[in-house]
Specification:
This protein is 38% helix and 14% strand. The strands form 5 sheets. The chain has a 7-stranded mixed sheet with strand order 6-12-11-10-9-7-8, sandwiched between helices. A 4-stranded antiparallel sheet has the order 13-14-17-16. Strands 1-5 form a two-stranded antiparallel sheet. Pfam families: Aminotran_5, KYNU_C.
């Protein structure tokens, strides 16, 4: 597609956008009586307008039914998670029994590592991306120490080559192959939080399995952002948060995926709780843990009704648009336009003030574009915020901008470019 750096072009693209009406389904923060151009869905998604209604229904159930709400009413809490499972499965490319909403992300990462990180004296290493989100680093380090190994010996971090910002798939595969006999687990993010790089999860999973390792993913920045096919890719396990691209509110409930090939494996360890017990016999209160079939068997605590209600509100909007394929189709074009606009700003300035470190290949990125500001980055970012453009700042000099297809427009991207150009000229004239 041939883009134009004009407001008229941006507006024409918005008129043709099949998802343009979805923008009205969300609430935008305000400043000085004007809504923000919100480009921070990679950190916290916007509130769906329907969230208050869906949450209110559950508050009404609590008020009117109290403890009977577990079994009475239109949406008994005992089974509420099953409606979410139906809506979650298409988001990550799974069967309904392979997913479950529960806990928060890092808690779930630990619970799943109990089952799928089973180190031995010979095979004890974990291979991961260098520069993974700190929670992943800390969780993996603590799991390694828990099993009595030294993180310096047990954790292999695959880093970009010198002078580069992103990883090549062939380098990841080569690192897995080179250490294959010692690897117990391959654990990557689906999308790197800093660069926005989308990893080739299918190829990574195949490479891990070829050396006899289990393979899992933290999908915090991928779920609700890009189409996933966890079942078909043969991924062993995954977990994600729901508050970024899935707009389920700050600290929103997490989700897990466990491939159905593991459901009958009686040798898997797990940290058990009452809510993971076989549903039909749960209230017999008997000793001896018998897990519910599927991902539900990894539950520990009872249904978190209110966080699930917020997640439910957002998932209904994904169902309304047909889940991930329409979202991804718009995202590719919208992000491509953001690349174009940043390039246009650099041309107008006369040098590369903004260096994009997110891959330009559409198959290697989602909605996030990470930009190094080579001069006065924080001053530029603060100017954007002052003028109602809200992205995300990462030290020392990176601005992350995510044009989320569910609620961002081409006009948002054009207007952001205009502000970037204006502030850059001002900075360079100081």
């Amino acid at each position: 597609m041939t883009f134009e750096n004009t407001l008229a072009f941006a507006k024409s693209m918005d008129l043709q956008d099949p998802l343009k009406d979805m923008r009205e389904e969300y609430l935008f923060p305000q400043q000085n009586g004007k809504p923000f151009i919100y480009l921070c869905g990679n950190s916290l998604g916007l509130q769906p307008k329907v969230a208050k209604e869906v949450l209110g229904k559950q508050l009404d159930n609590w008020q009117n039914l109290a403890v009977e709400g577990w079994f009475e009413g239109n949406e008994p809490w005992m089974f509420y998670h099953k409606e979410l499972k139906r809506l979650m499965a298409p988001i990550v490319g799974a069967s309904v029994d392979e997913v479950c909403p529960m806990n928060t992300l890092t808690v779930n990462l630990h619970l799943l590592m109990v089952s799928f990180y089973r180190p031995t004296k010979e095979r004890f290493k974990i291979i991961m991306e260098a520069g993974a989100f700190p929670s992943d680093q800390y969780a993996i380090e603590s799991q390694v120490r828990f099993h009595g190994f030294d993180p310096k010996e047990a954790i292999i971090e695959v880093a970009p080559k010198e002078g580069e910002y992103t990883l090549k798939t062939e380098d990841i595969v080569a690192a897995i192959a080179a250490n294959g006999a010692e690897i117990a687990l391959v654990l990557f993010g689906g999308i790197n939080y800093f660069t926005g790089q989308l990893f080739d999860m299918k190829t990574i999973t195949k490479a891990g399995h070829q050396v006899g390792a289990k393979v899992g993913f933290d999908l915090a920045h991928a779920a609700g952002n890009v189409p996933l096919h966890l079942h078909d890719w043969d991924v062993d396990f995954a977990c994600w948060c729901s508050y970024k691209y899935q707009n389920a509110g700050p600290g929103g409930i997490s989700g897990i995926f466990v491939h159905q090939k593991h459901f009958s494996d009686q040798s898997l360890h797990r940290f058990a709780g009452w809510w993971g017990y076989q549903e039909k016999n749960r209230f017999l209160m008997e000793k001896g843990f018998v897990p519910e079939t599927g991902a539900d068997g990894w539950q520990v605590s009872c249904t978190q009704v209110m966080p699930m209600a917020l997640y439910h509100a957002s998932l209904q909007l994904f169902e309304k648009v047909g889940f991930m394929e329409p979202v991804r189709k718009k995202s590719r074009i919208l992000t491509e336009y953001l690349f174009f606009i940043v390039d246009e700003v650099n041309k107008a300035i006369g040098f590369e003030q903004f260096k994009i470190i997110t891959p330009r290949n559409q198959d290697e990125r989602g909605a996030q574009v990470s930009i190094i500001a080579k001069k006065d980055g924080k001053k530029i970012f603060d100017h954007l915020v002052k003028n109602n453009v809200l992205g995300d700042w990462r030290e020392p000099n990176v601005i992350r901008l995510s044009a989320v297809p569910m609620y961002n427009s081409f006009e948002d991207v054009f207007s952001t470019g205009e502000l970037l150009l204006a502030v850059s000229k001002s900075v360079n004239n100081d």
